[in-house]
């Protein structure tokens, strides 16, 4: 078996740990190395699994590998992606793809020029509830879609996520993109206009921790996303991804993380949740590896990442101007 050789760049985002666990159990994958300028972030995983450590990701890119998975701070996504593409490596990049439209365009163009794949990490597409809902909608079971209401409410992550210099934004940028990608995928229409409101309602931090993002699609469908870091430390689970899709002939409600057990223990004094269902990160990583191995286009492209992130960026512009923003204004600038 010819193995797909993969390197990982940065464990700044906690999703890197999940992706690593999935790679470790894939017989068709060889993990060449992990690069992170902060050795303490990866020392345990490199030591426990005997994976080569690189302080400088450029040295990892010079090694014999096919692809990289990037989980750095948001502000570094574009630079690392373009360096990887110029080195001839395929890329799976953590969301949001970038923090400006221009840099995301450059990421896509650099990958295309170097004939490498760029995939955006939107694992929610692989959740069973989401897949079943999309199939039902595609079969016409609720008629024509009129409106979609979504939520992505989580725990405030702290660290670099609340430093706008490294993150590019707060809860709106962090939590709009997952649900926005699902809306685009299910509605099969591009967002046309955005109006948003935000606030610091739950934490004293430098960025917003709550927002409401309103979208109108080219097709006329309207959507709204409740995006927040509103879950307290005592909340039994980190957050949610939900959608209510309203059609002319019915409604579909999605609780994307509903595959869970609720556990009550006297010594813990609060409910604990554990999963019994499918692992969305597993399907995401498998799809990336399979696309590289078989030479076909990745299922969630850089363009998908750009379009979803552009809505979050338009939300910030809407709040700045206190007005509705046309997405085309950002994309054509």
Topology:
Blueprint lengths: L3 E6 L5 H10 L4 E7 L3 H11 L3 E2 L2 H5 L5 E4 L6 H10 L3 E4 L7 H13 L4 E3 L7 H11 L6 E11 L8 H4 L3 H17 L3 E9 L10 E8 L4 E10 L10 E6 L3 E5 L4 E5 L6 E5 L4 H15 L7 H20 L3 E2 H5 L2
Helix pairs in contact: 1-9, 4-5, 5-10, 8-10
InterPro entries: Gfo/Idh/MocA-like_OxRdtase_N, Gfo/Idh/MocA_Oxidoreductases, GFO_IDH_MocA-like_dom, NAD(P)-bd_dom_sf
Pfam families: GFO_IDH_MocA (PF01408), GFO_IDH_MocA_C3 (PF22725)
Organism: Paenibacillus radicis
Structure description:
The model has no long low-confidence stretch (mean pLDDT 93). This protein folds into 2 domains: 4-121, Rossmann fold (3-Layer(aba) Sandwich), CATH 3.40.50.720; 124-280 and 309-331, Dihydrodipicolinate Reductase, domain 2, CATH 3.30.360.10. Strands 12-11-7-10-9-8-15 form a 7-stranded mixed beta sheet. Strands 3-2-1-4-5-6 form a 6-stranded parallel beta sheet, sandwiched between helices. Strand 11 (242-247) and strand 12 form a beta hairpin. The chain is globular, with a radius of gyration of 20 Å. The chain contains 11 helices and 15 strands. It is of the alpha/beta class. Residues 11-121 form the Gfo/Idh/MocA-like oxidoreductase N-terminal domain. Residues 132-252 form the GFO/IDH/MocA-like oxidoreductase domain.
């Amino acid at each position: 078996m010819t193995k797909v050789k993969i390197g990982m760049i940065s464990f700044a985002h906690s999703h890197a740990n999940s992706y690593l666990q999935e790679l470790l159990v894939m017989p068709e994958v060889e993990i060449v190395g992990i690069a992170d300028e902060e050795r303490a972030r990866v020392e345990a995983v490199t030591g426990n699994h005997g994976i080569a450590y690189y302080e400088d990701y450029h040295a990892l890119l010079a090694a014999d590998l096919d692809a990289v998975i990037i989980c750095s701070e948001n502000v570094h996504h574009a630079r690392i992606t373009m360096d990887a593409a110029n080195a001839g490596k395929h890329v799976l990049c953590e969301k949001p793809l970038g923090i400006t439209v221009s840099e995301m365009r450059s990421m896509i163009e650099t990958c295309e020029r170097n004939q490498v794949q760029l995939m955006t990490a939107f694992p929610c597409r692989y959740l069973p509830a989401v897949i079943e809902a999309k199939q039902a909608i595609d079969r016409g079971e609720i008629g024509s879609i009129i409106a979609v209401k979504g939520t992505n409410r989580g725990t405030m992550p702290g660290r670099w996520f609340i430093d706008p210099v490294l993150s590019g934004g707060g809860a709106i940028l962090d939590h709009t993109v997952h649900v926005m990608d699902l809306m685009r995928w299910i509605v099969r229409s591009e967002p046309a206009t955005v109006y948003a409101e935000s606030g610091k309602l739950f934490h004293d931090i430098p960025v917003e921790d709550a927002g409401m993002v309103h979208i109108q699609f080219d097709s006329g469908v309207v959507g709204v996303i409740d995006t927040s870091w509103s879950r307290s430390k005592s909340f039994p689970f980190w957050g949610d991804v939900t959608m209510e899709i309203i059609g002319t002939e019915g409604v579909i409600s999605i609780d994307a993380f509903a595959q869970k057990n609720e556990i009550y223990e006297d010594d813990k004094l609060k409910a604990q949740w554990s999963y019994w269902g499918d692992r969305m990160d597993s399907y995401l990583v498998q799809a990336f590896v399979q696309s590289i191995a078989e030479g076909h286009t990745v299922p969630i492209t850089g363009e998908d990442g750009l379009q979803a992130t552009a809505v979050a960026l338009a939300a910030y512009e809407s709040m700045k101007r206190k007005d509705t923003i046309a997405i085309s204004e950002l994309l054509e600038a």
